[in-house]
Design goal:
Strand content: 15-25%
Largest sheet: 4 strands, mixed
Number of strands: 4
Shape: globular
CATH architecture: 2-Layer Sandwich
CATH topology: Ribosomal Protein S8, Chain: A, domain 1
CATH class: Alpha Beta
Order of helices and strands: EHEHHEE
Strand order of the largest sheet: 1-2-4-3
Distance between the termini: 16 Å
Radius of gyration: 12 Å
Length: about 80
């Protein structure tokens, strides 16, 4: 199964760049019909992870994917699943 991976460690403190990269990877998954996006906000304090979840819960983004899975074995990783017909 093909997947995309976005590691936010390098841009965690770059404000708008985080949302730009999240938008880019979600749009790329939709355009290329890739079923899984792995987003790595890192473990840290959890602030970046919450920001990612908030981004994914926006209506115009939420309608693009099937479901979000928080990795139970790794607090610093989120999976976004897509379903294409």
């Amino acid at each position: 199964m093909a997947k995309l991976k976005l590691d936010l460690h390098d841009i965690f403190n770059k404000g708008d760049r985080i949302e730009d990269e999240l938008t880019r990877v979600i749009n790329e998954a939709v355009q290329k019909k890739i079923a899984l996006v792995e987003i790595i906000p890192g473990k840290g304090s959890g602030v970046l992870k919450e920001r990612v979840i908030k981004f994914l819960n926006q209506g115009h983004i939420k309608k693009l994917y099937h479901r979000v899975e928080k990795d139970s074995k790794n607090f610093g990783r989120i999976f976004v699943h897509f379903r294409f017909n």
